[in-house]
Amino acid sequence: MKACIDIGGTKVAVSLADGAGGQPIGRRAEPTATTGDRGALVRQVLRLVQEVCAAQGVAEEQVTQAGVSSCGPFLHVAGRIEVANPNICGGLAGPARGLPNDWTSVPLEAPLAERFAQLRIENDAVAALEAERLWGALQGVPHCAYVTWSTGVGAGLCVDGRILRGKNGNAGHAGHTFASDDPVGLLCGCGNWGDVEALVAGNAVQRRFAERGWADAAALMQAASGGDKAALAVVDELCRVLGRMLYNLVALLDLQRISLGGAVFLHNRGLLLPRLQGEVSRHLPALTDGVQLVPAGLGLAVGDYAAMALVHG
Fold it and tell me: How wide is the angle at C-alpha 186 spanned by C-alphas 245 and 106, nearest 5°?
């Protein structure tokens, strides 16, 4: 058995798999650790691995391989990956974002390599892209992307059948591209003002619109689905921002299909998908004709399958 570890800005989930592509088993999940010292996240991961093994009757020493699908960005410190994620590390944007720590990164690869003989770590959107290409909506598509719209916004990119990673494994962090020069209330957890994530991410919706009566993204989407004109106007604006980001990916990479995941999108796909497709399709037909936006084929389980894709085979 192999450990499948999914680290997000909101939750950490761990399951086991045999690597042959079957369903992950024994899943345990809990909110991502953001208090204590910088080692808290890895201790949480290792505890969850222990708990899953115990629940499944698997001896811990038999689990020697792990795939880790983790939110980024990544840093390389002494040749090992650390995570500098704005929803985990409070030191990136400072007290204005309210995270209860002053971390600017947390160690990941070095401590996990002490536990697992074989370890593969990828950005979570890259891992989800691999899963969607193996089992989901991107099978057989050589020019494609996976984009998540959830707590954060990110992408995994594939051109000519080759997944793009970049110098530190951070290719695809489209959520941190700039979309506005308005500094009022648009502070991203990474420290940027006015990037895509600051405007449309799930936690950004809560910060930006709570005073208007929508406590979170779910409340906003529910109101819009019910026909509330003010809520619909906000949703249209959010889709304009994210749709332009998607168009930019298509224009830069000449993509065929983009698979969309993440809780914000998947829980509201009927409302959001036609708006996003319309935003992409209305620009420059030479680039966008035939480009498809589709829901992630693996649905809300894409994070679990993303980690499993890293230990597949």
Answer: 85
SS3 32: coil
Q: Report, in this order, helix, strand and coil percent for the chain, each rounded to 5.
A: 40, 20, 35
**pLDDT higher than 80, residue 276:** yes
> What's the confidence (pLDDT) of residue 313?
74
**CA-CA distance, 302 to 168, in Å (whole number)?**
23
> In which order are the strands placed within the sheet that holds 74-77?
74-77, 80-83, 106-107
* Inter-axis angle of helices 269-281 and 217-225, nearest 10: 80
SS3 for 80? strand
Reference 156, options 142, 177, 176, 170; nearest CA is: 170
Instruction: Give 203 or 285, the one with higher predicted confidence.
Output: 285
Arithmetic mean of pLDDT, 149-170:
96
